[in-house]
TrEMBL record:
Segments for region (Disordered): 186-219
Subcellular location per the Swiss-Prot or TrEMBL entry: Nucleus
Gene Ontology molecular function terms on file: DNA binding
GO-annotated cellular components: nucleus
Bias type Gly residues, positions: 209-219
Domain Transposase Tc1-like residue range list: 68-130
Biological process per Gene Ontology, one example term: DNA transposition
The name this protein goes by in its record: Uncharacterized protein
């Protein structure tokens, strides 16, 4: 039964019971509604003789099927744009914004995927612990330079994704730190590389290089 018709039938039943002299409590028990709801229907009937349910003003909201369809599309492609969602649902972009709020999705900047693996992190931790135990004579041979910010990969590019609370670090909602890495340095294993001239390169593990017999480090 249509909801509007169902409300009209309910109102007419309440009004008829009221005309028959039943109390609000008895009517509420018969129609299985709250006493405040029954009282409101009777009050409206007394004021303007209304027996039919009035359709609420404004456009109807989205159906449950539409919201589920929106949620499935967002879960399938979290980085989808509002324009693409609007075309998918055949609605305006403003409507998409309202619908996404109803489904508790928010548009946020994608978190960057950590560049280091657990294996790399563990190796760097071991190297740091080893360096902490080095004697003073070792550090006298190290050349320290001023701190300077550098970025191996551009951080100007941002990707926006849809996600709910506590979904920021899901794999499909992360932004790649590097789009393509074809060559990975062998320095990750903590070993030094040698050039053709016999000098050692300074690798990710912070080991000595052979330039002048001194160690090069950075604070």
């Amino acid at each position: 039964m249509d909801k509007q018709l169902e409300k009209t039938v309910l109102r007419r039943m309440v009004i008829q019971y009221h005309k028959d002299g039943l109390s609000i409590r008895k009517i509420a028990e018969k129609v299985e509604r709250s006493k405040s709801n029954v009282q409101h229907i009777i009050k409206t009937y007394r004021q303007n003789g209304q027996t039919n349910a009035i359709k609420p003003p404004g456009r109807p909201g989205p159906t449950e099927q539409t919201l589920r369809r929106l949620g499935r599309q967002i879960e399938k492609t979290p980085a989808i744009t509002g324009k693409e969602l609007a075309n998918h649902l055949d609605v305006s972009r403003n409507t998409v914004q309202k619908y996404t709020k109803m489904t508790e999705y928010n548009v946020r900047i994608a978190r960057k995927k950590p560049l280091l693996s657990k294996k790399n992190i563990n190796k760097r931790r071991l190297w740091a612990n080893k360096m902490a135990e080095m004697p003073l004579d070792y550090w006298k041979k190290v050349i320290f330079s001023d701190e300077s910010r550098f970025s191996q990969f551009s951080d100007a590019y941002r990707t926006f994704v849809y996600h709910k609370k506590n979904q920021a670090y899901q794999a499909k909602r992360l932004q790649a730190t590097a789009i393509l890495i074809e060559q990975i340095s062998n320095d990750d294993d903590g070993q030094n590389n040698s050039d053709d001239d016999g000098q050692n390169n300074f690798g990710d593990d912070g080991q000595n290089n052979g330039d002048g017999g001194q160690n090069v480090g950075a604070t």
